[in-house]
From TrEMBL:
UniProt source species: Muricoccus pecuniae
Gene3D superfamilies on file: 2-enoyl-CoA Hydratase, Chain A, domain 1, Lyase 2-enoyl-coa Hydratase, Chain A, domain 2
CDD domains: crotonase-like
UniProt-recorded name of the protein: Enoyl-CoA hydratase domain-containing protein 3, mitochondrial
Function noted in UniProt: May play a role in fatty acid biosynthesis and insulin sensitivity.
GO biological process, one term: fatty acid metabolic process
Amino acid sequence: MPDGAAGLTAPILLRESAGGVVTLTLNRPSARNGLSMTLLEALGGALRDIAADPAARCVVIAAEGPVFCAGHDLKEITAHLADADGGHAFFAEAMARCAAVMQAIPALPQPVIAAVGGMATAAGCQLAAACDLVVAADTARFCTPGLDIGLFCSTPAVTLSRSVGHKAAMEMLLTAEPVGAEEARRIGLVNRVVPAAALRAEAAALAGRIASRSAHAVQLGKRTFHRQAGLPLAEAYELAAAAMVENLLAEDAAEGIGAFLAKRAPEWRHR
């Protein structure tokens, strides 16, 4: 879907599929890949399509240009200050649409990997944190700088606080200071740090490894992981035990166990 004059020749969200891996690339480099309403709509639509695609096994979210994502499009937000209500209705819609996308990522059946090269700021940091895994270039930085412009990054704090410890999250939120890739890995925001030139290849290799597994087991596991995370210990075990039973009864589990015992490669049926 195009976005502005540049969008006449290039869509703002690129999509390609290979070997069960779907790569979504934010394509607003001149706007620092800001999350305009149009880009949020495109992301939400792409995620809905992928959720219903049985051929999709894993998703990578990447970006064109030196910035992964600068968060909400501040020019778009500023333009609505002149609305009759001072921007209230637009701001509420923008926050709701962004929240829907951020919730769609963990709810997606397929695992999602963020490939972050460069800065991930505010809602851009939120986008990375919402993903199941993050591969970062050694040049990547993560920041929630809302207080620099009089805004506390309350919505980015939701995913950030679920990815790192509360103290680390609050330090990022209160100081607005950028966190480098290695520090982001230390606090749990990033899984892997690689040279910038190897970012796309590393993310693709990781996604390919996941895509080569039983889709049934992976999707059941992701769903169970997110559901148990907010439960008390006993309820979490009850949910996880039921998921294990369901998994053990699946065709792929019988195939995987049989292949292991027979010392051969499994042939997944994804059910």
